[in-house]
C-alpha cells in the first residue's frame, strides 16, 4: 500500500559541501584502519561518491599499539597512492597523523621532533577515553609555542569532559580547535556522545567535522547519515572550517 509515510527522503546535500576530510585511517596495515591497499581503495571510492574531493588521512601514532613515525606513514601512503593509480582513482590524498597524547608524544614535542601536520600546521591529537593525561593543557600550550595549531579529535567522545563541561571551554580558551566525528551525530558511539556532539555544536565550539573512517561499516553509516535531517541541517548551516583547509592547501 502506498503511503506518504513510505516516501523516501532524498538527501539534498552530500559531503561535497565540506570538500575535505581531515581524519581517517586509510594508510593500509599500519593501524586499526584499512588492512590492505585494496580495502583502502574501496573505502576511498565511497568517500569520493559521497562528495569528498580531498583527503588528509591520519594514522594513529600511539606508543604501544601503533608506533608509527613519519617514515612508516609516508611509505604506507606511497603504497596507497600506487594502488589508487592502478585502480584509476584520482583524488588528492595526503597523510598527517592522529597523535595520542602519551609519553611518546611528550618526547616528540619535548625533543623538538617534527610532527606530521594538517594544512595550517595543525596537529590532530587524541587522548584516553577514560581520563585526560596530566599534561593535557601543557601539551596544548607547548604545541602552540612551537608554532603548531592543536586540533582535538572527537572531543564529544571524552565523557569525562562532558561531566565537567567547563573543561571544553578551557581547552578552547587555550586555543585548541575541535574536530567532531560525523557519526557521533547519528548516535554511532552511543547516546551520551550524541548529546555532547549536539551541545558542542549548539555552543559553536566545533571547528571541523571528520569521518574518522576505519572500515566498511563506517563507510555505510556515513552514507546513511546523509539521510538524517539533523546532519543535513548542520551540513547546510553550520560554519565548519573544512573548506578553509582546502584554501590553505591552495585549492
Ligand atoms: Fe581516529
Write the layout of secondary structure elements.
Blueprint: E1 20-21, H1 37-49, E2 54-57, E3 60-61, H2 70-86, E4 92-95, E5 98-100, H3 103-110, E6 122-126, H4 136-145, E7 149-153, H5 159-162, H6 166-173, E8 177-181, H7 191-202, E9 208-210, H8 216-225, H9 229-237, H10 242-249
Helix pairs in contact: 1-2
Bound molecules: fe (ii) ion.
Fe (ii) ion binds at residues 23, 25, 98, 153, 212.
Summarize the structure.
The chain is α/β, with parallel strands linked by helices and 251 residues long. The chain has 10 helices and 9 strands. Helix 1 packs across helix 2.
| Relative strand content | 5-15%
Q: State the shape.
A: globular
Tally the beta strands.
Answer: 9
Write down the CATH topology: TIM Barrel
- The secondary-structure class comes to alpha/beta
Give the assembly state of these chains: single chain
- Unreliable residue stretches: 1-6
Distance between the termini: 50 Å
> Which CATH class?
Alpha Beta
Overall average pLDDT: 94
Order of helices and strands: EHEEHEEHEHEHHEHEHHH
Fourth-level CATH superfamily: Metal-dependent hydrolases
Gyration radius (Cα, Å) is 18 Å
At CATH's second level, what is the architecture? Alpha-Beta Barrel
**Number of helices, counting only DSSP H or I runs of 4 residues or more:** 10
Strand count, sense and barrel status of the largest sheet are: 6 strands, parallel
Which hetero ligands occur in this complex? fe (ii) ion
The helicity comes to: 25-40%
> Biggest sheet: strands side by side, in what order?
3-5-6-7-8-9
| Tally of structural domains | 1
Amino acid at each position: 500500500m502506498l503511503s506518504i509515510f513510505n516516501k523516501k527522503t532524498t538527501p539534498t546535500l552530500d559531503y561535497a559541501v565540506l570538500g575535505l576530510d581531515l581524519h581517517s585511517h586509510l594508510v593500509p596495515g599500519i593501524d586499526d584502519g584499512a588492512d590492505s591497499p585494496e580495502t583502502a581503495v574501496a573505502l576511498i571510492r565511497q568517500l569520493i561518491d559521497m562528495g569528498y574531493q580531498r583527503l588528509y588521512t591520519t594514522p594513529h601514532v600511539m606508543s604501544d599499539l601503533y608506533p608509527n613515525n613519519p617514515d612508516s606513514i609516508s611509505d604506507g601512503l606511497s603504497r596507497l597512492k600506487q594502488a589508487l593509480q592502478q585502480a584509476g582513482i584520482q583524488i588528492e590524498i595526503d597523510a598527517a597523523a592522529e597523535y595520542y597524547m602519551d609519553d611518546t608524544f611528550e618526547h616528540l614535542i619535548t625533543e623538538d621532533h617534527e610532527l606530521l601536520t594538517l594544512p595550517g600546521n595543525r596537529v590532530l591529537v587524541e587522548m584516553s577515553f577514560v581520563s585526560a593525561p596530566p599534561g593535557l593543557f601543557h601539551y596544548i600550550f607547548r604545541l602552540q609555542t612551537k608554532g603548531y595549531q592543536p586540533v582535538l579529535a572527537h572531543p564529544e567522545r571524552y565523557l569525562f569532559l562532558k561531566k565537567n563541561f567547563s573543561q571544553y571551554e578551557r581547552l578552547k580558551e587555550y586555543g585548541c580547535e575541535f574536530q567532531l566525528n560525523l557519526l557521533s551525530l547519528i548516535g554511532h558511539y552511543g547516546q551520551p556522545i550524541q548529546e555532547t556532539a549536539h551541545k558542542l555544536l549548539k555552543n559553536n565550539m566545533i571547528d571541523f567535522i571528520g569521518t574518522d573512517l576505519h572500515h566498511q561499516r563506517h563507510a555505510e553509516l556515513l552514507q546513511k547519515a546523509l539521510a538524517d535531517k539533523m546532519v543535513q541541517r548542520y551540513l547546510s548551516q553550520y560554519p565548519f572550517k573544512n573548506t578553509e583547509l582546502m584554501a590553505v592547501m591552495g585549492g
